[in-house]
Specification:
The protein is mostly helical. 80% of the residues lie in helices and 0% in strands. The chain has one domain.
């Protein structure tokens, strides 16, 4: 594949989606269709921008917004407290917590973490994430599976599928262990509707 378009696609996909498109790109590297270095840079930059977009959107706004919904603020409290105690670790975890990426970025914004600190830590882990997946899917996975006759791009796809499933399971476990995450606008609307209905019933 020639030109910049494949790498632009990887950049956009990593920004809005996560592992699946990047795993496919790593498989194309194993098949000799894409350049490994360009894929790593495109994926890492897209992932970092995607994570940091949520941080900067919520920064300076989330505290005022949650204050309007005490029940939701209490629900978010366990994760927020973890971020307060282990802020650096939580930023480093974002790229490796697929079920909590938005929630952790929002919690970091809620505790008013330094924007420079968040950006540097997140960008660093984005490159580690991209390079690590490339090693596992583009080279190590196919090399190991080649011993059973499943090398090349087929071995790369198998390794990628295993990693995607592992990330999904890890995200679920992390979400359970860390408690509730900062709510979305949809959950806020539901809470508002529920409070309104409850108030009407109490007024009868």
């Amino acid at each position: 594949m020639n030109g910049a378009w494949p790498y632009l696609g990887i950049f956009v996909a990593a920004m809005v989606e996560g592992e699946i498109a990047y795993v496919g790109a790593c498989a194309l590297v194993a098949a000799g269709q894409l350049n490994a270095g360009a894929v790593i840079v495109s994926g890492a930059l897209g992932a970092a921008i995607g994570d940091q977009a949520f941080f900067f959107v919520f920064r300076g706004r989330l505290q005022r917004w949650l204050a309007r919904f005490p029940a939701l603020e209490r629900k978010a409290a366990p994760l927020v407290e973890r971020v307060r105690r282990n802020a650096t670790l939580m930023v480093l975890l974002i790229r490796f917590a697929p079920g909590l990426r938005i929630a952790l970025a929002a919690a970091c914004a809620y505790v008013d973490m330094s924007a420079l600190r968040f950006s540097i830590l997140n960008a660093g882990t984005a490159f580690i994430w991209a390079a690590g997946l490339m090693v596992l899917i583009g080279w190590a996975g196919p090399a190991a599976l080649n011993r059973v006759g499943l090398g090349g791009w087929i071995g790369s796809l198998i390794a990628g599928a295993v990693i995607v499933i592992a990330f999904k399971l890890l995200g679920r476990l992390q979400a359970r262990s860390m408690g509730a995450a900062p709510p979305s606008p949809h959950s806020a609307r539901r809470a508002t509707i529920g409070s309104t209905l409850s108030a009407r019933r109490d007024g009868r």
